[in-house]
């Protein structure tokens, strides 16, 4: 289990994705801790860029020959879509969406607090066999529509999040409300 992004806050901070994931699921299931790879926490010793570099090295160390890439081939990457069409901590027009070389970046000045974050890049996300994009609520309807448009990933990072084999959208009716009629009616389980 890998993280696509993390708020660069101290370990255990309630705003960290890791903290929420542990409370909601990870601490309740028998999962080998060696297979859980949270992004580094702010510890006062290293900055966000150094922490991102450290996570990138962890990815490189864990990649297998059958991954055919410098990072692990993720089976499924679950990403929420923000109202501005961001995914992970890749915000529209931010330097992170322009990154073409690195797998993990430190994010400075994120438009949503906290400003400092760590994020996989679109290049790293592209190592996913499947990407599942999740959104709920009418406030995300335009972002969902744009994610399915031919928009560029610099302006609409969600448009650049595509799985190698499949991209699945998990939407409620409100989030799907701006989709073109020709897409048909969304299916439900």
Automatic annotation (TrEMBL):
Residues 1-167 form the Glucosamine/galactosamine-6-phosphate isomerase domain. InterPro entries: 6-phosphogluconolactonase_DevB (IPR005900), 6PGL (IPR039104), Glc/Gal-6P_isomerase (IPR006148), NagB/RpiA_transferase-like (IPR037171). Belongs to the glucosamine/galactosamine-6-phosphate isomerase family. 6-phosphogluconolactonase subfamily. This is Unannotated protein. Gene3D superfamilies: 3.40.50.1360. It holds the Pfam family Glucosamine_iso. CDD domains: 6PGL. GO terms for molecular function: 6-phosphogluconolactonase activity. GO terms for biological process: carbohydrate metabolic process; pentose-phosphate shunt. The lineage of its organism: unclassified sequences, metagenomes, ecological metagenomes.
């Amino acid at each position: 289990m890998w993280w696509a992004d993390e708020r660069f806050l101290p370990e255990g901070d309630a705003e960290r994705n890791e903290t929420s994931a542990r409370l909601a699921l990870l601490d309740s299931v028998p999962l080998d801790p060696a297979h859980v790879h949270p992004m580094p926490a702010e510890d006062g010793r290293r900055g966000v860029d150094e922490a991102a570099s450290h996570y990138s090295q962890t990815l490189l160390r864990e990649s297998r020959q059958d991954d055919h890439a410098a990072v692990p081939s993720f089976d499924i990457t679950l990403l929420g879509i923000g109202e501005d069409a961001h995914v992970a901590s890749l915000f529209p027009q931010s330097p992170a969406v322009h990154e073409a070389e690195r797998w993990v970046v430190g994010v400075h000045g994120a438009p949503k607090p906290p400003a400092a974050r760590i994020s996989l890049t679109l290049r790293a996300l592209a190592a996913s066999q499947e990407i599942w994009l999740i959104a709920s609520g009418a406030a995300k309807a335009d972002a969902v529509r744009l994610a399915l448009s031919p928009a560029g990933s610099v302006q609409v990072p969600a448009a650049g999040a595509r799985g190698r084999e499949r991209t699945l959208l998990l939407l409620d009716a409100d989030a799907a409300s701006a989709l073109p009629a020709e897409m048909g009616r969304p299916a439900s389980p």
